[in-house]
Amino acid sequence: MAEPMQTEPSPAAAPALALAPQKRSLSAVQQIKYLYKPALFVLCLLPLLLLAAKAFGVAGESLGANPVETVLHTLGKWGLKFLVLTLAVTPLKDIFHWPRLLAFRRMLGLFAFFYVLLHFLTWLILDQELYWPGILADIAKRPYITIGFAALLMLVPLAVTSTHKMMRRLGRRWTKLHRLIYAIALLGVWHYFWQVKKDVREPLIYFGVVAALLAWRIWKRRRGAKPQLANAQNL
Ligand code: HEM
User: Fold this and answer.
1) What pTM was estimated for this model as a whole?
2) 116 inside domain
């Protein structure tokens, strides 16, 4: 049966229509873009804001007896947490059947880079005080620094190619390049493990989580699942 044709509202009905409350709900894409993404952005900045609050003694908080160490360690830990969160997006998307979760992966990855970069800059400026002979010697001779530095260098191309434009331009090569994130996370865990003096429980937990995520990824690939790029609908 043919659908009844939609007719234009009569001129007499126009004032009534103008008075009727306009029901304008955001589409799922708009909700992600204008609500969830800004909210996540603020959430991701919170560790840094808390650190700044402590540095300025807000509400009686402080960075403790060794402020540089506190800042260095906090930023390093958040760098690692964001790396793990980035890796967890795809499995969580599959488990909860929520493909739109992919829209947040890029932001989490960029925050991982942001915190690792700040961690590195803290070491470079506050810890080493830009003393280049010492910096270069540490990078070359202290294995945990060498590994951390390698992980940071590997993060750079991922951050640079994180735009939709680069994603489209590189195509399948983009997916291959971004698999580096697993190696980076493992190097980050190794770096953490090596510099811990006594209690290695926490780095081991991180290792377990990253290894499980990697195993999941390999298992999925073996089952023939194609890696998914984030939806290019400006998400
Ligand atoms: C992906 C890259 C990196 C990650 C994920 C990472 C993560 C971490 C973590 C989790 C810690 C331990 C925090 C704690 O004990 O509470 C740490 C410590 C540290 N990291 Fe990194 N880091 C990275 C790169 C770097 C780089 C590039 C450098 C410098 C070249 C660096 C220098 C240090 C130093 C000096 C410490 C403290 C060691 C100590 O107190 O004995 N890290 N990092």
Assistant:
1) 0.88
2) yes
Give the Cα separation of 154 and 148 in Å (integer). 10
State if residue 71 touches ligand 1 by the CB under 6 angstroms criterion: no
CA distances from 116 to 119, 167, 232 (A): 5, 23, 27
Cβ 79 under 6 angstroms from ligand 1: yes
pLDDT in tens, 5-38: 334 445 554 454 444 555 568 888 899 999 999 9
* Residues 123-153: tens digit of each pLDDT: 999 999 999 999 999 999 999 999 999 999 9
43-76 pLDDT, tens digit per residue, is: 999 999 999 999 999 999 999 999 999 999 999 9
Q: How many structural domains compose the chain?
A: 1
Any atom of ligand 1 within 6 Å of the Cβ of 210: no
List the residue whose alpha carbon is closest to atom 38 of ligand 1: 195
Instruction: Report which protein residue has its CA nearest ligand 1's atom 9.
Output: 76
Q: Is 87 in the pocket of ligand 1 (CB under 6 A)?
A: no
Query: Is 215 inside any structural domain?
Result: yes
Does residue 210 lie within any of the structural domains?
A: yes
Q: Is the shortest distance between the CB of 128 and ligand 1 below 6 Å?
A: no
Domain presence at residue 93:
yes
| Sign of CA pseudo-dihedral 93, 208, 148, 56 | positive
Sign of CA dihedral 92, 97, 99, 104: negative
